[in-house]
Structures are given as structure tokens and as C-alpha cells.
């Protein structure tokens, strides 16, 4: 079942390794087949170098294993909440990449300081509120997803394809597994550049909104003109 999607999810997980966003068994990436409402996700705690397509676990949106002999990632409930609440999402990536995780541990959003950020995120990379003890004690991974959902009550998940979970780390998403991995890589790069910018000049202001809009909208939306037209 879903052999092609299993292969896509495996390759996207390995892209996180290739781009040095994960160490050992840290991190996970999933994708959803919307027509079947089935999710394919990396198994829990299996070294990346050992992973094969058949190791990917298929579940339904309630977390029931449909196919696979391994346990799915422990972060599966977070992924499922995001798929349920954001229908535009087709893939979700979670890492503990160094710079993005540092911003998350500092409980600080990543401000948009330049046009590289604006090319991908139509706003700052937000950070969730800290989870109260009762949400950590029970259904932690599900409540992590709910914290992200609350963070995006007034934000557009398609225009801001990532978030920092306070004291934890980044989640990123996209229309499919490959784009989720791509956005995870970009999020780490933006986190590093913001850190370095503020180290050089702590008083660096946010990007001018007009320039921010220009850079974002030339790559996204119906009037985008960056790159080649699709025929």
C-alpha cells in the first residue's frame, strides 16, 4: 500500500540527514495521502542508515497502524493534529536542528530581518506558548500539536510554513514530503542568519513591510513571476 509515498517519505527523511539537520535518530518526517486519509511516517528510533521504504509506517488519522511492523514515530500525534487542522499541508518535518532549536529553547520567534527570510515566510517564524504541566504530563505529543494550532489561530499556515515549539524545536511543512523537508532546511538557514545578524548588530530592525511583501509575493500567489512558468 502507498509504495510511492513510502519512497517519497524515506527520501525526504534522508534529505534531513543529507542537510545535517538531524543527529542519530533525532527527527521525523511524514506525508499524507488525502484521498485515503492515510499517513506515512518514519518509524521510531530506527537509525536513518538502516531505513528502507518498507520500514515506513502507514497509519490512519486516528493513529491506528494500517501497515507496518514497526512503531511509528512518537511524534505521530503532533503530525496528525496538523493534518487535521491544516488541509493544505501534505507533509510535516520535525527536527532538532541546531539554530532553530536554539531559538525555540530561547522561546523567541525568528524575526524577518532580510529578503532571504521574506522569500519563504510571509512573517516571522512564530514560537508557541509554553505548555502547562498538565498538557506535558498527559497526551504530550497531541498537546504539542494543539499548541501549534493555537499559535496559528490568526496566521496562515500556507504562508508561514513552519513554527518553533517553545523549549522543544522546529516543525515545518509543505504540500508534500519533499517540500516539508525543503522548508525544514530553509527554516534552519533563516534561524542561523537571524542569529548572526543580531550578533553583528543587536539593533537590526525587521525588514521593511513593503520589501517583505515584494519578495514573498514575487515567488508566491497568482501574481508570482520568479522562476519558470509551468506548462
Describe the protein in words:
The chain is α+β, with helices and mostly antiparallel strands and 231 residues long. The protein has one domain: Class II aldolase/adducin N-terminal domain (L-fuculose-1-phosphate Aldolase). The protein contains 8 helices and 7 strands, in the order H-E-E-E-E-H-E-H-H-H-H-E-E-H-H. The protein has helices at 3-18, 76-85, 98-105, 115-118, 133-137, 140-151, 177-200, 209-217, and strands at 28-33, 38-41, 57-60, 65-67, 91-94, 162-165, 169-174. A 7-stranded antiparallel sheet has the order 4-3-2-1-5-7-6, sandwiched between helices. Strand 1 (28-33) and strand 2 form a beta hairpin. Helix 2 (76-85) packs parallel to helix 6 (140-151) and helix 3 (98-105) crosses helix 7. The radius of gyration is 17 Å and the shape is globular.
Class by alpha and beta content: alpha+beta
Spatial extent as radius of gyration: 17 Å
* Low-pLDDT residue spans: none
- When the domains are counted, the total is 1
Distance between the termini: 31 Å
- Strand count, sense and closure of the main sheet? 7 strands, antiparallel
- Overall spatial form: globular
**Topology pattern, helix = H, strand = E:** HEEEEHEHHHHEEHH
Strand adjacency order, main sheet:
4-3-2-1-5-7-6
State the total count of DSSP E strands.
7
CATH class: Alpha Beta
Q: Helicity level, as a percent range?
A: 25-40%
Strand portion: 5-15%
CATH architecture: 3-Layer(aba) Sandwich
CATH superfamily: Class II aldolase/adducin N-terminal domain
